[in-house]
Specification:
By secondary structure, the protein is an alpha+beta fold. The protein contains three helices and two strands, in the order βαβαα.
């Protein structure tokens, strides 16, 4: 799939806060699919969201606006 895309493919692992989560396994799968950057995160606790927001923001101004919305 990733060979058909002309942009960097990013993997996002959700639910890392769950007791039965296995983010290491999911990361292996995403790497096999061609993902270079992988962001484990929890929508419940907010863990990992800052790194993803920083990656997605085009510039410092947009980064600050995205952080305010959180």
């Amino acid at each position: 799939i990733t060979s058909l895309v002309n942009r960097e493919v990013v993997g996002i692992i959700t639910g890392i806060d769950k007791l039965d989560a296995n983010p290491e396994r999911v990361e292996r799968w995403l790497r096999l699919a061609g993902c270079k950057k992988i962001f484990p995160l929890s929508a419940y606790t907010g863990e990992g969201l800052d790194k993803l927001i920083e990656f997605l923001a085009d510039d410092e101004k947009e980064l600050e606006e995205m952080r305010k919305r959180k």
